[in-house]
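Progress note, sequence design subtask.
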């Protein structure tokens, strides 16, 4: 892959830049090069242009943030809670268990760059062929955008398009950001707060731990609702089942799967997306528990044309810097989930060791046995009412 991603220097530059934005605002804006680096110092992504553009107004100061009186009432915000020194959302309706603090923001930045390295794109080529990003005027939405790393890059790539990020936690740059990006703090499970047919392109990525099995149909139906006819949906998702030959790692990964199932989550969601998105028929009386299983209130109706489907193995701790980075990202997930995973029966049975030793043993087993999980990238198109051939084209 020719990757030069490594892990010792700090990718946290970007996150700390976000935290220091207030300070930056007082200083001359964009005077230093700010390159996002992987932890070993190799350049894996860049916000150079983000800062360079500050001198020609390509990014803006968020007015709402400047005027706290205009921000959302506290009651509409998700709220936070601190558990074992980490900050988590306090949305009782959500199954999402990962933190929302600076450490997690750092992790998500790194995940963006290593994934871009693995996949090689921010937008799948077929989307660029279908939609005229260069001419501008497109409306683009990132559902569950997190710290908005993808949005900040993508919005600078296509400065004449309008980008919107939505997430229940406001992890995005609070004050200084590209002028063509806006954010909304909202729970997707309450519905996407946009009119029908608003967006030309929608992305959703890394939400396998965000939605319960029976919530996926609603989320996908909302995405389809706010997508314009002929618009494209790019979904990038993990299949977190780990293929490993190490007995300890194997027993751990099986238990992780059942732990997630006990929380209503399906870690294999990535593997099911393609069939879920291209599913045409409402299935009567279906009692399946698979992702997208029929839900009385939201019958299956996600029928879209899958234009492209890609799969990558995600190496965990082997094969070079990408594997090293993904193992470290995975460790970050297990650390973040620890308040819920530690009480789980399996971990309790292993309790002759502390959590750090347990993580070390899992990591060692994953690395030694060249373990991997799956990553799926799917591009689907909403039917266009004027296209009589829709549904008859072949999938790549
Ligand atoms: C693993 S992060 C991925 C962030 C981003 N998509 C990326 O690729 O970096 C999952 C995100 O989903 C958000 N999320 C989870 N459940 C949500 C919900 N019901 N409504 C809105 N956002 C949600 C979390 O707050 C978190 O920022």
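Output:
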């Amino acid at each position: 892959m020719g990757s030069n991603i490594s892990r010792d220097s700090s990718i946290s530059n970007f996150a700390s830049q976000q935290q220091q934005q207030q300070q930056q605002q007082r200083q001359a804006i964009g005077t230093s090069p700010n390159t996002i680096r992987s932890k070993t110092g190799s350049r894996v992504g860049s916000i150079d242009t983000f800062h360079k553009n500050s001198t020609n107004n390509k990014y803006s100061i968020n007015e709402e943030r400047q005027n706290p009186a205009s921000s959302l009432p506290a009651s509409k915000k998700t709220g936070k809670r601190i558990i074992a020194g980490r900050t988590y959302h306090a949305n009782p309706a959500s199954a999402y268990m990962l933190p929302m603090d600076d450490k997690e923001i750092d992790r998500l930045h790194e995940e963006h760059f290593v994934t871009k390295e693995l996949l090689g794109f921010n937008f799948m080529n077929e989307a660029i062929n279908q939609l005229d990003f260069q001419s501008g005027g497109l409306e683009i939405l990132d559902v569950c955008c997190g710290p908005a790393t993808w949005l900040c890059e993508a919005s600078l790539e296509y400065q004449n398009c309008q980008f919107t990020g939505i997430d229940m936690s406001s992890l995005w740059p609070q004050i200084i950001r590209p002028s063509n990006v806006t954010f909304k703090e909202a729970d997707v499970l309450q519905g996407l707060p946009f009119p029908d047919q608003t967006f030309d392109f929608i992305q959703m990525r890394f939400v396998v731990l965000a939605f319960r099995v029976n919530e996926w149909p609603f989320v996908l139906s909302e995405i389809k609702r706010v997508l314009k006819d002929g618009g494209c949906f790019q979904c990038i998702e993990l299949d977190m089942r780990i293929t490993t030959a190490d007995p300890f790692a194997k027993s751990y990964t099986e238990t992780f799967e059942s732990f997630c199932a006990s929380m209503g989550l399906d870690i294999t969601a990535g593997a099911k997306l393609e069939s879920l998105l291209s599913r045409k028929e409402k299935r009567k009386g279906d009692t399946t528990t698979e992702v997208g299983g029929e839900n009385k209130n939201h019958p299956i109706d996600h029928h879209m044309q899958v234009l492209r489907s890609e799969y990558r193995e995600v190496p965990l701790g082997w094969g070079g810097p990408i594997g090293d980075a993904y193992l470290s990202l995975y460790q970050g997930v297990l650390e973040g989930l620890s308040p819920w995973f530690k009480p789980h029966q399996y971990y309790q049975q292993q309790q002759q060791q502390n959590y750090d030793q347990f993580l070390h043993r899992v990591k060692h087993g994953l690395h030694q046995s060249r373990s991997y999980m799956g990553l799926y990238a799917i591009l689907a198109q909403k039917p266009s009412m004027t296209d009589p051939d829709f549904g008859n084209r072949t999938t790549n």
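Confidence is low (pLDDT under 50) at residues 1-57, 63-75, 281-290. Work on this subtask will continue into the next period as scheduled.
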